[in-house]
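agent: user wants the structure for Succinate dehydrogenase cytochrome b556 subunit from Pleomorphomonas diazotrophica. delegating to structure tool.
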Amino acid sequence: MADARLAASRPLSPHLQVFRFILTMAMSIVHRITGGFLYVGTVFVAIWLVAAASGPEWFARVDGLYQSWIGRLILLGLVWSLIHHAIGGIRHFAWDLGYGFAPKTADLLALINLVAGIVLTIVVAVAAFVFA
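agent: tool returned. relaying tokens verbatim.
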């Protein structure tokens, strides 16, 4: 029978102690987090749609909240989440097709995911403020 004391002294997740933290790992974690943000973000879109359907008074209230600095910050975060998650999804699709598994390629794709997400979010934010 196995010794319970020996089993208790072993780490449960040695991978966290063995592997160094790399950008590909970080982008995988961020991809999961942005997916959660998008799930919550659909509530904000649903509130906006319900307010629009409820009449001008309710729409003005919700729009006033979304136009505040905190509302715009939340919406900017949701835009970044959407863009970052979409680019990460394209990266995962390439992996599903069998491309991009070489370590240097995977690191490059992770860097592209990070930079493109930030740049495209800035482009969308500037366009939103210029054309608003």
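agent: one observation worth passing along. Residues 34 and 73 are 15 Å apart (CA to CA).
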